[in-house]
Design a protein that fits this description.
By secondary structure, this protein is mainly alpha-helical. Helix content is 76%, strand content 0%. One of its GO terms (molecular function) is gluconate transmembrane transporter activity.
């Protein structure tokens, strides 16, 4: 491997790292794309104008063309579940069935089932959050772990499970020329392992907290509108 190839690979890695860092800092995504493309082009010794005009735009348009209907149908379904409150009803039924004492299992599982059904992560988060807030209150659990429980259920095992009608599956299946059910056995076993390990991890984190932190619900009540506003900000940290 010659020096130019190594430099090009390092440029790609640097662009990916820069992408994550800038997104986490709230920089506009279009500006991020412009900067990261420049990094890849310069380290790969590609003409900057041609990189933007040909390489970047051809890739962007091709990606959008190949996956447009996946984005469209997913958005429509998510909006329908949000307007009809279907996602909230399903989540409430599952959580009520398992009980508040199993909140750290019930909430990720409810989010996972909704995600496997095709509902987008953001719709799930905002639909389940009010229920999670109430359940954590009843179970006397630290509310700071609500985003962890929601994002674990929304963004991990269910999104990549075989057969899930999510872009994470559709894009890869399209690129590899396979169905979204490819590798079903291995996929389901892996997703189940992710669910178990994630729930154990959540339980271990909560268990380490002292009793004083658990009783903050009684000592300092925060209005729901403030919690919801802060939760929206927290969700931005999981965009990458």
């Amino acid at each position: 491997m010659d020096g130019e190839t190594i430099l090009s690979l390092l440029g790609i890695i640097a662009a990916m790292v820069l992408l994550v860092v800038l997104v986490m800092r709230g920089v506009n995504i279009f500006l991020i794309a412009f900067i990261c493309t420049a990094v890849v082009a310069l380290t790969g010794k590609i003409n900057l104008y041609e990189a933007y005009k040909t390489n970047y735009m051809d890739g962007f348009v091709g990606f959008l063309k190949a996956n447009f209907f996946v984005f469209l149908t997913g958005t429509l379904m998510g909006k329908a579940m949000e307007v009809t409150k279907g996602a909230k009803s399903i989540a409430k039924m599952l959580i009520d069935g398992l009980g508040s004492d199993k909140a750290l299992i019930a909430i990720p599982l409810a989010c996972g089932i909704l995600g496997y059904g095709g509902v987008s992560a953001f719709v799930i988060s905002f639909a389940v959050f009010p229920i999670a807030l109430q359940v954590f209150h009843e179970a006397d659990l630290p509310r700071k772990y609500i985003p962890a429980a929601l994002c674990f259920g929304c963004s991990t095992f269910a999104m990549i499970a075989p057969g899930a009608p999510q872009i994470h599956n559709a894009i890869v299946a399209n690129a590899m020329n396979t169905s979204i059910m490819a590798g079903a056995v291995n996929g389901f076993v892996t997703c189940f392992a992710m669910l178990v390990i994630g729930c154990i991890w959540l339980y271990r984190m909560v268990k380490k907290k002292n009793k004083m932190e658990h009783t903050l619900w009684q000592k300092r009540e925060i209005p729901f509108r403030i919690l919801r506003k802060n939760f929206r900000k927290e969700c931005l940290h999981y965009v990458p």
